[in-house]
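Good morning C.,

I know you're traveling, so I'll keep this short. The sequence:
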Amino acid sequence: MSTFGTMDTANSGLVVYRKWLDAVSDNIANINDVRSTSDSAFQARYVVAQSAGDTAGVQVAGIALGDAKGRVVHQPDHPLADAEGNVRVPDIDLAEQMSQLIIAQRGYQANLAVVERAHDAYSAALRLGQ
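The tokens, ready to paste straight into the viewer:
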């Protein structure tokens, strides 16, 4: 591990949690996205994380997408409704997304606190040498 291994590991966590926050925010922003029944619904984004391999930390392995079928709901007065009055909406649970948002936010905050404390410790060590 490098001299600043603690900061490197926490920084990798910051990157993953930031991408997770972005994905959840995107899901929440598109939760009411309405499309015609002939189109695919908005697909929720889910961050897939993995170990960073031979180094400490974590990295984003990819993004998994939710179901493109979504849900078909009856909204006969919507401009995109088909002949039966149905439209397609994403199959995204707001309560689940809010829970994921809180978890990702707490993880981001925890990793940021590690970076700040490591920075303070390294700064104090440098002051000792003066």
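Safe travels,
E.
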